[in-house]
Give the backbone structure.
Amino acid sequence: MNRAIKSLPLYLVMMVLVAGLALGATTFVTPTTGATMGGQYVVNVTSTLANLANCTVTGTSALSGDTFTVTLINGSHTYANGTLNVTAERDAGDWVLSGTCYNSSGSTQAITQITAVKTDSTVPAISACTFNSATAANGQTTAKKSNTLVCTIARATSCNLYYKTSTAKAMSSDGEDYDCTFTSTSSYAGGGTTATCSVNSAAIGNNAWHMDCTDGVNTTTGTSYTFKLLGEDKDDSGTTTTTGGTSSLAIGGMKGTVTLILVVASAAMVILLIVNHSRKR
């Protein structure tokens, strides 16, 4: 009994030590989940790892296709930090940061992962838009209900098309009246990349369109353009009017056509009667 009592404190000490090791962790101080990094940014972690020596932090962004690694040096017994040149990384809002810390005896401890970290050094650009291969401008005309819109996109992770309405149409999911192709990771190339949208079901008269693009932090809205579909528009009475030309001719449906034929036939009959009457004389 006495031996059990005497061994109890040592048992409790061991339990506390084991619990302490289990609860030990290394976590980010800067940045935190959802934070924005820019410029020369100091990455900082706090650790319970004894005799902390250094840490390695890795960042990955699926949207931009970019990655980075930064080494943190022990600044005290519990902290390590290092500087990341954010201007060398691609802007995005989906960065995932994780890593590992090491001590002088070779032990390691994982750094608790954080997500949705942002990098902010640039803004997206939208330029060189075309409409059916011609430089985009207001008031362009077309005889086709299906048309092709193209813009050059730089430094963007996603884009939207606005066509006929103010509702955003995500280029990552095509719809009934639009079909777009855009690869975000390619937009970080030196000359950017293209966003190509085939739009269908253009309405008679004016149709408006524009694009906007984001890097997860900043959004750029492109110039809005209008184009006019040339074609035929029928009113409730059945009258057909050609629109978009320099002149138009309106004839009242089938009844108008029959009436015109009768008028022409009557005129011809009158002319024949006059000719026959002249011969008899």
Remarks:
- The chain has two helices and 21 strands.
- The chain has two domains: 21-119, 125-233.
- The two ends are 156 Å apart (CA to CA).
- Residues 253-280 form the longest helix (28 residues).
